[in-house]
Design brief:
Order of helices and strands: EHEHEEEEHEHEHEHEH
CATH superfamily: Nucleoside phosphorylase domain
CATH topology: Rossmann fold
Strand content: 25-35%
Number of strands: 10
Strand order of the largest sheet: 3-9-8-4-10
CATH class: Alpha Beta
Structural class: alpha/beta
CATH architecture: 3-Layer(aba) Sandwich
Shape: globular
Helix content: 25-40%
């Protein structure tokens, strides 16, 4: 059985995921790796390297946690699955607007999920909203910033602070990646009275039953000796 690492930012998210895992899921490890893309990348990479060093590598990595949802696309309490994890503020500010890293020629700001893992999660979570999940180092707290992000990334449904970092670590190790979030607040003006942290953590617990390694495809052994055709 292949192994899965579920990386959260903080302990509260880790505990919410653990509470939702079916008993006996020894092939799934859940760890809090830190807040923000840098801490998430470093913490995830360390765990992947340690597992590989003892001969028990992780085949799958999921960035899981709560986050903000773009109001017209993912409402509070909803589950979100990323079709792209995007480092939305990685680039340069210019007089003509924001230039992402891609346009500067220094790399890519987009990490794609593993199609096998994403398909399995979508099948297990049919009500989940799918779309791009933005990774930001500064949480959006104003209406102009929210509008600019929504215009720049029309498929964005949510934002978090770790997905892209976890995805980079997974890519370096060769593990399949996916990002799952539950929505705790609208992306926009910072309004703590509108946050629903407990509801989002409860939704994360419910969604975590879907966090299990997908079946590995059967090996292609080719035509058998003596077979017709």
């Amino acid at each position: 059985m292949s192994r899965m690492l579920v990386a959260t930012a903080v302990a509260a998210e880790r505990d919410a995921v653990l509470a939702g895992l079916p008993p006996g899921k020894a092939e799934v490890t859940v760890a809090a790796v830190g807040v923000g893309p840098a801490a998430a990348a470093a913490g995830t990479a360390r765990l992947l390297a340690l597992a590989e060093a003892v001969g028990r590598p992780y085949r799958w990595v999921v960035s899981a946690g709560i986050g903000g949802g773009f109001p017209a696309r993912a409402k509070v309490g909803m589950v979100v699955l990323a079709t792209r994890s995007i480092a939305a503020d990685l680039g340069a500010a210019t007089a003509d607007g924001f230039l992402p890293l891609d346009e500067l020629g220094f790399g890519s700001t987009v990490m794609a999920p593993d199609p096998v893992l994403l398909t399995a999660l979508r099948a297990a979570l049919p009500a989940a909203v799918t779309g791009a999940v933005l990774t930001v180092s500064t949480v959006t707290g104003t209406a102009p910033t929210a509008a600019a992000l929504a215009a720049r990334y029309p498929d964005a449904v949510a934002e978090g602070m770790e997905g892209y970092g976890v995805a980079c670590a997974a890519a370096l190790s060769g593990a399949g990646f996916a990002e799952l979030r539950t929505v705790s607040n609208p992306v926009g003006p910072r309004d703590r009275a509108a946050w629903r942290i407990r509801e989002a953590l409860d939704a994360l617990t419910a969604a975590s039953a879907a966090l299990r390694p997908p079946p590995e495809p059967a090996p292609d052994v080719g035509p058998r000796l003596g077979s017709a055709g």
